[in-house]
Automatic annotation (TrEMBL), chain A:
GO molecular function, one term: ATP hydrolysis activity
Protein family: Belongs to the ABC transporter superfamily.
Record bears the keyword Transport: yes
Membrane topology term: Peripheral membrane protein
An annotated GO BP: peptide transport
Keywords: ATP-binding, Cell inner membrane, Cell membrane, Membrane, Nucleotide-binding, Translocase, Transport
Subcellular location: Cell inner membrane
TM segment ranges: none
Top-level taxon in the UniProt lineage: Bacteria
Organism: Xaviernesmea rhizosphaerae
Protein name as catalogued: ABC transporter ATP-binding protein
InterPro entries per record: AAA+_ATPase (IPR003593), ABC_Ni/Peptide_Import (IPR050388), ABC_transporter-like_ATP-bd (IPR003439), ABC_transporter-like_CS (IPR017871), Oligopep_ABC_C (IPR013563), P-loop_NTPase (IPR027417)
TrEMBL record, chain B:
PANTHER family assigned: D,D-DIPEPTIDE TRANSPORT SYSTEM PERMEASE PROTEIN DDPC-RELATED (PTHR43386:SF1), OLIGOPEPTIDE TRANSPORT SYSTEM PERMEASE PROTEIN APPC (PTHR43386)
Keywords assigned: Cell membrane, Membrane, Peptide transport, Protein transport, Transmembrane, Transmembrane helix, Transport
Gene Ontology cellular component terms for the protein in this record: plasma membrane
Chain ranges of the ABC transmembrane type-1 domain: 93-282
Pfam hit, one: OppC_N
Subcellular location(s) per record: Cell membrane
GO biological process: peptide transport; protein transport; transmembrane transport
Protein name: ABC transporter permease
Highest taxon in the source lineage: Bacteria
Presence of keyword Ribonucleoprotein: no
Record membrane topology: Multi-pass membrane protein
Gene3D superfamilies (UniProt xref): MetI-like
Family: Belongs to the binding-protein-dependent transport system permease family.
Length: 289, 295
């Protein structure tokens, strides 16, 4: 087995705002090069916090209390800011959640796509432009010349998300963090975006951390999954294994709670309260131990 | 293919903004009126029928054209010293607009600089600037302006200085709030990961997105500046009573309102419509340039 690209070991963190409430409880996960790993959980489960820790943009209200985030043998949590800046936006990039706000509304697409290429890869203006055009074609945008000359508000949400995907893959990163990249989009566009991320990831042999709350999305795109609840890893493994043979009752209940398009007449089954009680009890017990 | 349906929706951004501006009636009327005022201010010596300072006691308090005892050549009548009201209003436009543009630009400059810094760097900068604004806002503005001009001594410079010293807080508060909002958006994080310096992000990424709201504020501030100048002239703290200013005319007209109402009413109309035009322009700009509205 190849050595992991990213290795999170026993990462714990607390919120400084809410009386040191734990937000991550000894989370561990490994990511091999070229692997797509899903981080799944409800709101507040800690999936976004993990993503932010990997990106080095943890808010001041979250304090890491233990563990490590190693990226190719460098611990991102203890790296000096300069070294961290060299990695971020170059070796690790982000596909943001909301395509509305991730592009500067007062700048043309061209500048926003080429900034990084020129500043980080040292490309000339012409080379960066050529690279940007090629990337736009790769994410299946028609008429890339015109898109480069456009302002974000002239483009649809799906188009903007494609541009952001192009931007994320532009510097040839080893790891892309996708933070719920399809949540703000129409369902029909979602599917195309998922397929696009998958294809880009395979073509560039890039590892992806895919943050989502949607098990259906996980089934479509992820090789492996970590399921979180209240900052704790509930279950982890390959997607196929987890979805076909879920070990934890919470996982089983979540899978059962998903909408069934083949049986629309069946009402949705919420996760039973008993399971949440059990989860909280388990967490309290491990805390005390 | 999702893109096929979207491609024809392109248009030139500049043209679109311009069309949004011209499609907003407030911008058209407010902006048109302001342009007219600028033309009047520039051409005042040419278009004014009389010398605004020329007194003729034989022709004192003549009523406007169309009233009993009106004299040809004095369209809006004369004041108690026989000076032509129309000419004085036209010349008064100069003072009003100079104060409007200079005072509003200077307060915008100071307020925006402090607001941007406070909203982006937060921490101590923000604490100091915000406390300053709080302290400033607790003074009654008209009283403070009268006090300031009394300290500086009367004159155009003092009036402008007083307005700037008082009104930079308006810009500071709004720009700070907008900067905080913009700084929290993902495009700023993206610019950070690209590796731009903090000043670059503030001035090149955030500032352009604050400009629309700033333009609207400047226009509103011009209306306020015109009013404040009139107030200060009214209490005799602006320019010498010789110089034609609307506030000075209003003060003078108030004293002889029973003999000649027109000396009070016409400068009031000029003041009222100018402030209205600036306010309409400001509100219209805000609506037309709002990035959320111009999808």
């Amino acid at each position: 087995m190849t050595s992991p690209l990213l290795s999170i070991k026993a990462l714990s963190a607390v919120s400084t705002r809410e009386a040191h409430q734990p937000v991550l409880r000894a989370v561990s996960l490994d990511l091999r090069p070229g692997e797509v790993h899903g981080l799944v959980g409800e709101s507040g489960a800690g999936k976004s916090t993990i993503a932010k820790a990997v990106l080095g943009i943890l808010p001041r209200t979250v304090k890491v209390t233990g563990g490590s985030v190693r990226f190719e043998e460098r611990d991102l949590l203890t790296l000096p800011p300069r070294a961290l800046r060299d990695i971020m936006g170059r070796e690790i990039t982000l596909i943001p959640q909301d395509p509305q706000t991730a592009l500067n509304p007062s700048r043309r697409i061209e500048g926003q796509l080429t900034d990084g290429l020129r500043l980080r890869l040292g490309l000339s203006a012409a080379a960066a432009r050529a690279r940007a055009l090629a990337l736009l074609e790769e994410v299946q945008i028609r008429d890339p010349e015109r898109v480069l000359a456009s302002y974000p508000h002239q483009l649809s949400g799906g188009m903007r998300q494609r541009i952001l995907i192009a931007a994320a893959f532009a510097p040839g990163p080893k790891l892309v963090v996708a933070d719920e990249p399809t949540t703000a989009l129409d369902v029909t566009v979602q599917k195309e975006i998922l397929r696009l991320i998958r294809r880009m990831q395979r073509a560039h042999d890039t590892a992806v951390i895919f943050v989502t709350h949607d098990l259906g999305v996980v089934a479509k795109i992820c090789d492996s999954v970590t399921l979180l609840y209240a900052g704790k890893v509930i279950e982890a493994g390959t997607t196929a294994a987890m979805l076909e043979r879920p070990a934890h009752p919470y996982t089983r209940a979540l899978i059962a709670a998903g909408p069934r398009y083949d049986r629309p007449e069946a009402s949705l089954t919420p996760v039973p309260d008993a399971i949440f009680r059990q989860l909280r009890q388990d967490i309290e017990q491990t805390e005390r131990a | 293919m999702a893109d096929a349906a979207l491609s024809p929706a392109f248009s030139r951004a500049g043209g679109k903004t311009l069309r949004a501006l011209l499609g907003e009636p407030r911008v058209l009327f407010g902006g048109g009126f302001v342009l007219l005022m600028i033309a009047i201010a520039l051409l005042a010596p040419v278009i004014a029928p009389k010398d605004p300072l020329e007194q003729d006691l034989m022709l004192g308090t003549l009523p406007p054209a169309g009233f009993d005892g009106a004299e040809a050549g004095y369209l809006l009548g004369t004041d108690d010293l026989g000076r032509d009201v129309l000419s004085r209003i036209l010349h008064g436009t100069r003072i009003a607009l100079i104060v409007a543009f200079v005072a509003a630009s200077l307060s915008a400059l100071i307020g925006t600089a402090l607001g941007l810094a406070a909203g982006f760097y937060r921490g101590w900068t923000d604490r100091i600037v915000s406390r300053l604004v709080d302290i400033w806002m607790s003074f009654p503005p008209v009283l403070l302006s009268v006090l300031l001009v009394a300290v500086f001594g009367p004159g155009l410079h003092s009036v402008i200085a007083a307005i700037v010293i008082i009104d930079w807080t308006r810009f500071c508060r709004v720009v700070r709030a907008e900067t905080i909002r913009q700084a929290g958006l993902d495009y700023v994080t993206a610019a950070e990961t690209v590796g731009f310096s903090r000043p670059h992000i503030l001035l090149r990424e955030i500032l352009p997105n604050v400009v629309p709201i700033l333009l609207a504020l400047v226009s509103l501030e011009m209306g306020i500046a015109v009013t404040v100048e009139a107030i200060l002239s009214f209490v005799g703290l602006s320019l010498s009573s010789d110089t034609p200013t609307w506030g000075g005319m209003i003060a003078q007209g108030r004293q002889i309102v029973y003999q000649g109402w027109w000396v009070l009413v016409f400068p009031l109309i000029a003041l009222f419509s100018t402030v209205l035009a600036f306010n309409q322009l400001g509100n219209g700009l805000r609506l037309a340039l709002d990035p959320v509205m111009r999808r």
